[in-house]
Amino acid sequence: MYDSKYQISDTNLRDMFAKLIASSIDNRHNKNQSPRFSSILRQLSPSDAILLKKLSFNTELPIPTFIYTINTGAKNEYPIFDHYIGINYSKKDVIINEAGLDTLKALGIIELKDNFEIPEEHLQKFYKEIKCSDYPLKSENRNIEKDISIVNGIIKLTNFGRNFIKAII
Q: What is an example of a Pfam family matching this protein (predicted)?
């Protein structure tokens, strides 16, 4: 309860603290709770809380990393973004929040797997949709040959993360 005073101004975090308090009182729900849950909530920024809420509806999500290659005689590779998060498995619902991913990973809520074979059909469909479009970049200079390669990856909630989400969402 003491930790909630630091996040009282943000609606999402305030609601998460309220649900944590309510679920910790209820004997049916508090068996998987950790004393760390309130300190974890205290460490989340408002944008981390929004990201966590979006991730909570899926056990795993695609997180492609885009590598942008410019070939001007010498091959130069540049990461465009570290991870695009494919919320709802659609390129229309892609979000980028690398700092939020770092926070959730450091807190033990999620794990990131890059260079990962994607056996699930719904994840493969997302990657095909991304690869068959000019998303995220369109050619700006037609004289320079550009190529975008995609490194497969997924986000998965840890067991600890699933218990945390049950307590706060």
A: Abi_alpha
69 in Cβ contact with 76 (< 8 Å)? yes
Total count of residues recorded for the chain: 169
Each residue of 86-100: b (16+ CB within 10 Å) or e? bbebebeebeebeeb
pLDDT tens for residues 18-47? 899 888 887 776 777 888 998 999 899 999
CA distance 115 to 83: 12
Q: What share of the chain is helix, strand, coil (3-state, %, to 5)?
A: 45, 20, 30
**164 contacts 40 by C-beta, under 8 angstroms:** yes
Structure tokens at 106: 């450091």
Q: Is 35 exposed, middle or buried (0-12, 13-18, 19+ CB in 10 A)?
A: exposed
Structural domains present in the chain: 2-168 (3.30.110)
Q: What is the pLDDT of residues 45-78, one digit of tens each?
A: 999 999 999 888 887 777 777 666 666 666 666 6
